[in-house]
Fold this sequence. Notes:
428 residues, binds magnesium ion, TIM Barrel
Amino acid sequence: MAIDRIDVNVTSPGRNFVTVKVTTSEGVTGLGDGTLNGRELAVVSYLRDHVVPTLIGRDESQIESIWQYLYRSPYWRRGPVTMAAVAAIDMALWDIAAKKAGEPLYKLLGGASRTGLLTYAHASGTTIDALNDAIRGYVDQGFQAVRIQSGVPGLGQIYGVHDAAPGGKYEYEPAGRVEARSGTGPAAGPEAGSAAGAAMRPSEETWETAAYLRHLPTVFAAVREEFGPALHLLHDGHHRMRPIEAAKLAKSLEPYDPFWLEDCTPGEDQAVLRLVRQHSVTPLAIGEVFNSIHDYQQLITERLIDYVRSSATHAGGITGLRQIMAFAAVYGIRSGFHGPTDVSPVGMAANLHLGLAIHNFGIQEYMPHSETTLSVFRTSYRFADGMLHPGEAPGLGVELDEEAAAGYEYQPAYLPVNRLRDGTVHDW
Ligand code: GCO
Ligand code: MG
C-alpha cells in the first residue's frame, strides 16, 4: 500500500479552488483542499514542484509522519502557502484512511460528540432594512446564529456587505468574485504612479473607522429590537481597528449581547488584546489568517480569545487544526472554524468532521457554496434547523467531478484593497 499518484486540480466553478487527489496503489482515492484565496497558483506550484515528487511511493497510512515530514523537513516552516499545501495532502490522507475503514471520517477522530453543529450564516445589507431582510431570510431557513455586516453612512462599498438582488435570492460571494481588472483602472493611493504597467489590480474600497464605530452599535440595537434576545449575533471587524478603537467597539456592543466580535485588530500584535479584554466582556474570535498552533500560543495561554477561527484548509489540515484544538481545550477555548466559500466543499467537510468529534466545539461558519460549485463538488453534509452534519458517507464524503471541473478554467480574482480617505493602505 503506497501513494501511487497525486493530481492537483484547479477549477473555477463560480470561484477558484485547488484540490489534491491522492491515489493509492490499491486504487483508493482521497481529496484535500488547498485553496488560498487570491494566491491559488502559489499553492499549486508548491504542491506540484516541491511536495508531490517527495511523496510518491510512501505509505499513505502514515498520516502523522507525513505531516511532520512536510512541515519540518523543508526547513522553511509555516506560512499560508506552505500550510495550505500541507493541508491538502493531510486531508486527502485522512479521507483515504476513513474510506478504507468504510466509515465517515469523524468516527476515526473519536466519534460524534454531539448530534449536529450549531452554525452561523452571513447576513448583510447596505441599510438596516436591507440587513433585516437578509437576517429574516436566514431565520426562516432555521438559522439560530447570524453574522451581521452593514453599510456605513458616508462610506461606499464595504467588503462583505451586499444587498439581495431586486426580487432575487439573498446570495453573494464575499471573497473572490472581485475580478482582477486588466488595463488601467482608476489611479488610487500614493503608489498608483502611471497606470501604463498595471496589468491587473484588485478593486479598492474606502474606509473610515470613526464613522463605523459611530454606526455599528445602532445597527446592533435595531437588529436586537427586530429579532429579540435569542438570535445569536456575530460581527466581523476584519482587522480594521487600532487597539483602543477595538476596545471601544467591544464595549459599545455589550448591551446587545454579541456572540462574538471577530478580528477586531490585526492578528499579528497579540498583546493588544489585553487592552480589549480589560475594557469588555464581548467574546473575541481570531485566527482565519493564522496557519499553525504557534500563531495561537499567546492568544491561548493568556486566554485573550474565546474562539479559534482557523480552518482545516489554512491551518495544516485535520492534523494541524486538531493540534490547535487540543491546545485550546486546556484553556477552555472553543472552535469557530472558518467556513467561507473560499474554503472548498472538501475543506468544509474536513471542518465538519473535526467539529463533530472534538469536545471543545463552539460554532461553525457556513456560507453555502453556489449551485455551480456544488455541481462540481458533490457533498454529503446536510443542514437542518440551524445545524450542520457531515453525513455518513465513508471518508470526507465529498466527490470531485473532474469532467465538470475541467469546464471551469482558473480565473485571476483578488480580494479588494482597503484605503483610508487620504489613500493610506489600511488593514481590513
Ligand atoms: C469570514 C471572512 C471571509 C474572508 C475570506 C478571505 O469571516 O468568513 O472574513 O469572508 O475575508 O475568507 O479569503
Ligand atoms: Mg472573518
